[in-house]
Design brief:
- By secondary structure, the chain is of the alpha+beta class.
- It is built from 16 helices and 21 strands.
- The longest helix has about 30 residues.
- The radius of gyration is 25 Å and the shape is globular.
- Its EC number is 6.5.1.8.
- One of its GO terms (molecular function) is metal ion binding.
């Protein structure tokens, strides 16, 4: 039976505490009797913490982090999640500093959760709702089907605010996103054992790319973050970042992608630069910046630079991979360091690019979205786009700041036209679903999902849980999880189903995925079982009227990190 892990401590002394493992099916209603969460927590406090309540007092329960008191069934339901920290009192008030909503917080902010089939941790739902109603200026929040808990703010979430910017909602990896590039490889060159040979060739892709002058040529004028951060340009990074070599297995005829093509999917961001920005603008727990203030403009300027830096980073990663995958010198910069040469290679990479999106950023957009009846003409959109930027001064109240943390945009950031396709990657062994965003009354023409879609399958396990449980399950055989057989088995265990749209037999005709990852901890943390079923996530987007499935790609090589 699945269990939920809680920590319960005395309100007057948090060092006196105990850990409880309660069935996830425990009723949230305190009136449900001895099996309710309330009753089980109280019994444990009385026996293990020696809690004594003198009449006429009654025990009281609080969330340790916020000081919120648990009274109604909904309160208990929100507080009941893995690693929750609850306090119990003998009738006294909460001891500690309560988190109070900001002065401009909106208790009536709307919250939409698109998940139905995809499982969502209650902790993430709590983070979504608390954030939406406690930070200033929030008018709407959308939890995507890949929603999962973050350290304080959720991932797979979108927050729409007016008058305020909230840097922590974007996080430190500003500009992180994904880009698809076409290669000249054929399916036969990456299937089966040939895929293993390709994986073996992927070397020399770590470490700084060339000298600072050439890196600045690559980024273009005004986009350098300084040599300290620019040394990471062209590198993938750790965590959930990756480069994947994929085969288009199915694609609608009218798409730019064709069945049998081999693509490069690059997932990376601004590396340490974005984290440095967040540290400087969100120091001492300062979460919000008011529109129009000098510090806000300065943050937006650096935010925009980090987004451009991240896009240049993905392009350079693609160049480095092309140089290995398509030998012959066409992608080799050589010893010539002239600016025009480097800029020429950057332009050449653009000819291979299918789509490139940010999923960690803030974007100034018209809000609420226009319906087809009152949408402007294309010329009007183009005119508006040319005069609009994230850091421009406000001209009216018919706009908002859309904060995305692990969520893909549905509109092109330059033209504001709907994007034709978007990648929805699963895990290192499951398909990347090809999506097209949709706009209809069902999703309020994009307002319900905050003009955003899920950016991936989303974590089903925390990194700590995946590291411990999967290492035990596979008896420490990290090497085995780099080979197609065990990778596919792990993916099947994560999905729980097979079928012609899943990671079943049809998806494995190419003999699975070879994984390049020389950091053992990452092997466990990023195993397929640590992620949700990507088809469930995609299905929820379809059910919400936010997207259509146009095809899918199967991975052949998944590259994380190579130290040799």
């Amino acid at each position: 039976m699945p269990l939920t892990r809680l920590t319960v401590a005395l309100n007057t002394n948090r060092n006196t505490k105990t850990v409880l493992l309660l069935p996830r099916t425990s009723p949230a209603d305190p009136a449900s009797g001895p099996t309710s969460i309330h009753a089980q927590v109280l019994k444990s406090a009385q026996t293990k913490l020696r809690l004594k309540v003198k009449k006429p007092n009654a025990p009281r329960f609080f969330v340790a982090r916020t000081g919120a008191e648990l009274l109604a069934p909904d309160d208990w339901a929100r507080a009941f999640h893995d690693d929750a920290f609850l306090l119990i009192s003998a009738g006294e008030d909460f001891v500690g500093k309560k988190e109070a909503p900001a002065a401009d917080a909106n208790p009536d902010a709307t919250v939409a959760v698109l998940a139905r089939a995809a499982d969502v941790d209650t902790a993430a739902l709590t983070q979504l709702r608390v954030t939406a109603t406690s930070l200033p200026g929030i008018v709407h929040a959308a939890g995507q089907p890949d929603l999962h808990p973050g350290n304080k703010f959720p991932i797979g979430a979108v927050f729409v605010s007016k008058g305020w910017i909230h840097p922590p909602l974007i996080g430190g990896d500003i500009g992180c996103g994904m880009a698809w590039y076409k290669t000249t490889l054929s399916r036969s060159q990456v299937d089966g054992e040939k895929g293993k040979k390709v994986a073996e060739q992927l070397r020399g892709l770590e470490g700084p790319w060339r000298e600072q002058a050439e890196r600045e040529y690559w980024m273009g004028e005004g986009n350098s973050a300084g040599e300290e951060w620019d040394r990471s340009l062209g590198t993938i990074g750790a965590g959930n970042h990756f480069v994947e070599i994929q085969v288009v297995e199915k694609a609608d005829e009218e798409l730019e992608l064709k069945e049998g093509e081999v693509l490069l999917l690059v997932h990376s961001g601004s590396r340490g630069y974005g984290g440095d920005i967040l540290k400087r603008y969100a120091a001492d727990g300062h979460n919000s910046l008011k529109e129009g203030e000098e510090v806000t403009s300065a943050y937006l300027e650096e935010h925009d630079r980090a987004c451009r830096w991240a896009k240049a980073n993905r392009d350079l990663i693609a160049l480095r991979f092309f140089d290995v995958l398509e030998p012959g010198g066409a992608w080799s910069v050589g010893s010539d360091v002239q600016q025009s040469v480097v800029e020429g290679f950057r332009k050449d990479v653009q000819t291979r690019k299918v789509v490139d999106i940010w999923h960690n950023n803030v974007q100034r957009m018209e809000w609420p979205p226009k319906t087809p009846n009152d949408a402007p003409s294309l010329s009007g959109i183009t005119t508006a786009a040319s005069s609009l930027s994230l850091s421009s001064s406000p001209e009216s109240q018919q706009y908002a700041y859309i904060h995305r943390k692990g969520a893909a945009p549905t509109l092109d950031p330059d033209t504001f036209n709907p994007l034709a396709i978007l990648p929805l990657p699963g895990s290192r062994a499951t398909p990347t679903v090809i999506l097209t965003p949709t706009f209809s009354p069902l999703n309020a023409h994009g307002a319900t999902n905050a003009l955003s879609l899920a950016h991936g399958a989303g974590r089903a396990m925390s990194r700590a849980k995946a590291l411990q449980s999967l290492c035990n399950k596979y008896k420490g055989d990290a090497e085995g999880l780099l080979r197609p057989g065990k990778v596919a088995a792990s993916a099947a265990a994560a999905a729980g189903t097979e079928g012609d749209q899943g990671i079943g037999k049809d998806a494995e005709k190419g003999a699975g995925t070879w994984v390049v990852c020389e950091e053992k901890q990452l092997v466990w943390e990023e195993a397929p079982e640590a992620y949700k079923d990507v088809w469930a996530v995609a299905g929820d987007l379809i059910g919400a009227g936010a997207a259509e499935i146009r095809g899918w790609c199967a991975p052949r090589i998944s590259y994380k990190v190579r130290n040799t």
